[in-house]
Model the fold of this input.
Amino acid sequence: MAAPRQPLSLAEVEAGSENERLGVARDSMLRNPLILKAELGKPQRNCYTLPGFDFSYGLYIHRTDGGVPEAIGHWNTVKPRTASVQKMPRDFITMNRGALKAGYTTAHEFNLYYKAKDIRCKDDEYSRFKRSPPKVPADFTYGITARPCTPFFDLLQHKYKELWMEQQRALTAALRAEKKKKDKVRETRTTFLRKHPQPAKEESFWHLPRLEKVGPHLSTFPDRDARKKAFSASH
Done:
């Protein structure tokens, strides 16, 4: 492995080279990647000072196991974790029953009874699954049901296209019917009377009530036949 090229120094700069500096020259000029020029036929130099070959890059972690001697001397075993005991909830049904049997009736007496006799639910009773396991049929299959097979005959016969066309035709007919209802002009009284005119009333002139025809108060004819004979002679 070739050694990494260290940053260029002023002692290495030759006259007429790419990085020759006139006037006051400083080492910092040769460590700036924006100023440093590439040398002809040579790889690019690193402008940073790199550590030696014995330097380990990354995070160094000290060994804590002791290696083979410590493994032979004594065996490190993992201690089992103690399972945390779950605190079961209070069994208020049993405590309330006991408080009533003892003759307690008020809330204060119930609270004192709870403190004196702290009855907890049992593990088997608290488990709802153990108390009432689900009733599953013997031939019940767990998991997701399989997807139905693809209807290839319907696809080949363009059945879905025909169904879609029928739906579009029905939708178009419904829209046209609705548009006709909206476009229909509502009839007014004038248009209705034009189509169905009222019967013409017979003209009757107005007369004074006293000139209306009034029946005779006296009848001077001896009988009806004499009256008709007299009217027939004058008319």
Remarks:
- The chain has nine helices and no strands.
- The radius of gyration is 60 Å.
- The chain has a mean pLDDT of 80.
- The longest helix spans residues 159-183.
